Amino acid sequence: MSHTAPQDPSQPWSRKAFLRGMTAVGVAPLLPAALPSAARAATAGPASARPDFDLVQGGVAVDVFVDAGADPAVLRAAGDLQADVERVTGVRPALRRTLPARATALIVVGTLGSSPVVDRLVARERLGVRQVAGRWEASVTQVVERPAPGVDRALVIAGSDPRGTVYGIYDTSERIGISPWYWWADVPVERRDAVAVPAGPFVRREPSVRYRGVFINDEQNLTTWSHRTQETDKNIGPRTYERLFELLLRLKANYLWPAMHPYSDFFNKYRENPELADRYGIVVGSSHPEALLRNGVHEWAPWAEEHRGADGALPVYDYTVNPAVISDYWRARARENAAYESSWTLGMRGLHDSALETRNATTIPEKVAVMNDIIADQRRILAEEVGAAAEPQIFIPYKEVLDLYNAGVRVPDDVTLIWPDDNHGNMRQLPTESERARAGGNGIYYHLSYWGRPRSYLWLDTTQLAKVWQELRRVYEHRADRMWIFNVGDLKSIETGLSFSMDMAWDVDRWTAENVEGFLAEWYGRQFGLRYGREITSIRTEYYRLAAERRPEFIDRGVFSVIHHGDEAGRRMAAYDRLLQRTTTLGDGLPAELRDAFFELVHYPVHGAYLMNLKYYWADRNALAARQGRGAGTNRFADLAEAAHTQEAALTQRYNTEVAGGKWSGYINPYPSQIPKAPGRPSVTRVARRETSGLGIAAEGNEVGAARALSFSSTTRDRRFVDVFNTGFLSLSWVAEADRPWVRLGAAGGSLTEQTRVWIEIDWPAAPEGTHAATVVFTSGDQRFEVPLTVVNEGERARRRARGFVEANGWVSIDAVHTERRVARGGARWRTVRGLGRGAAAVEAAPSTAAPVTADLAARAPELRYRVRFTSTGTFPVTVFRLPSLDERGARRLAVALDDQPPVVLSGQSVATGNRGDAWARNVEEGVEKLTAPVTVAKPGEHVLRVFMVDPAIAVDQVVIDTGGLPDAYLAPPESYHPVFNPAPDTSPGVDAPSR
């Protein structure tokens, strides 16, 4: 498929007329009152003044006309429109290749410059194409009266090029209620007797990014499913790719890197694959280790066998050893695929995603010279075998190749540079001013799924959309807009993230820092209807937030504390439990036809993440119980951990065998055999039964006993727990008593076989002001344990007088978005990004292209200010929880200061090492980087904490000040009291085992 070059950036778009039309006719109940999600579109003219266009009325469907000379991709997509109308109404339109002599209504599909019917309408100024003609993949859909002799009325779908026409066709399908995910996520199509679309016009302007697509990668589950259900004689073949190509086009994508691992069949093994791609209009490229469309995993060994050396030795895949053999290997594929619209990857890496091998080039300069020779050779091959059609050509500086590029590899100006992230959603580096001026432009390779170090995440869609937005917005501001390729792993589970990414690729301005969550409302409204979309959006937002604390694929033993901050892990599990209850309640109330899609898109991710975390929570409680010397309770926690794992397996089994009638057999598997460092079944400890009993206690903040006193503040109105447990297996009786009447106990005693958790609170109106010590005594027979309490009651008046965050219990904890004031300077500012980080939002220094501020920060740098009331004095560490971002040619810095003290600059990790166990690995596992600097509080009272931007695109999530009581835990403490932002600090308990 040939395309014209893109023109000037298009204008902002308006949806008002289309919304009025949608409201008037009530079409597409599964769609919210919005355009198709990926559309940068405009409506014009008095849509409400013209009658809508009936596609089906009274059991009769309007015919679809496509010119005889239409591009095969257009003709094929018109067939999908026929099928889509039939899916909605049960009536299939006829497909015409010639105009009828007489028709009341007709759908006319054509491409500007190649459709005589459409071109005549343009020449007569009957069809508005000013914003479409000459653009890349743009289209207009408009009702035209008397478009041709004998035709009274037509719905004209006209594209600037063949793919533009294809997208216009699929826009119409979406407008009548067909989700792009109708097959891949079983989103149902509501049947109606009649269906119509507004008169329009509806204009889809050209995309923000020219090439937009996916990399099917780490495809073990997809291969298993494809072999079982699609083509039993293949491991991903044409039938599967047909489904994938259709999905990509419905998502308004145009580009694919096909599956490439040993367990799948390589794309060019079946000649139907590239032929199909060309017929669909999909541009096929190849990943960073697959130069010139060659799949080294499968193809090099047989090629080498056929090209043994004179001595019979097999040639190795090393350009410094066998350049001629390797060059011929590439040339054969270039010649074979020359007729197809392809993307040609230049450069070289080792076989199967391994590092470049250069036996005869050991230094960096020598390797740079080799890479330059490789690129020159590949360019000659393409010029000779493919000619002018050999575009786009791309160079992907991935892993060790990035080091070579930065050391001086010369990439021709018309080649597109594809910048990689660190495999975990953080762009490693972005184009400089000179690189942005390249004729070939720039693009990105971005992971929504990943196999490798430090941990893999292939199971669920767990990257916050706001994180994706933040990075994609940043790359676009650096003019990396020629190609965006997203690693989607097996594809299933990435439905939401992929849809959002394609949305951004088409119209990067559609979603802003303030309304990223609006995508979820629109997208889920489209899949399930507005009645359910709002609640699903809320559920999914919380799901992403919990994953931002720790991806479920990254969970491990001992990550979250089970003794600090009210049982940090238990509080997190309580949040998951509430989320699951909401999800289950909503799912139980859905119509039957929505339940498969709901399970796939909502229930399974939430329930699966919950169970993955739950089994590790109980395993951690089991390990602690064993260290504490518990008896029956130790085994109870082991039972709970193993039960959660069993439930998780049953949930996955349901997906594979019951959902959609078993359609997804073998597709869903949290533990493909190839995944490194995947969480699995945590080990547990069991103790032999002993016919004894004994009392034990562990107060919050202590693994055992109560050496660390329980602290209470009238500001935060805390509640603390004491675990009361049995060291044996026989029942015992216990009693708890406080020595102060204003100390409240959740339980004062009882009979105990395993364990129970007793919550302690203070009756603040009854407690005297000042600092007091109290004691709670736990007894059983002659056993006696004292738990000391420290109670600080500043009184209600002091609480009401507070104007900022208040120190309590030895720390101050602040959500970064809760600023007293933000100061913009030098054309840069701090902005709120909703849905980003571990809370409701984070703050980011914008724009990403702002110049760093390295001197005179207090006067020149954008600033965040927080009012804090200290009761302690001294020099205290301030920890800024920065959301990871990288710049391998720059720095990632911010600064902090208290009042007018000199700012202290903090330098974050800017380089992706690809290692395990270092700072970069810790940051991507935890989703934050903790940067610490000292501040000095000379006197108690109110002060101003200041955070300064040094480098742009820094995002801050939380700020914590340790004034001497902060325990070591994974998460920041619950946010401190603030009269506006947090007047009622959360003290809700976490989950706990049943008391017995």
UniProtKB/TrEMBL annotation:
Gene3D superfamilies, sorted: 1.20.58.2150, 2.60.120.1620, Chitobiase/beta-hexosaminidase domain 2-like (3.30.379.10), Glycosyl hydrolase family 115 (3.20.20.520)
Coiled coil: none
Keywords carried by this UniProt record: Hydrolase, Signal
The Gylcosyl hydrolase 115 C-terminal domain, residue ranges: 804-975
Signal sequence range: 1-41
Entry keyword annotation includes Signal: yes
UniProt-listed InterPro entries: GH115, GH115_C, GH115_sf, Hex-like_dom2, TAT_signal
Listed name of the protein: Gylcosyl hydrolase 115 C-terminal domain-containing protein
UniProt source species: Streptomyces achromogenes
Annotated segments matching region Disordered: 977-996
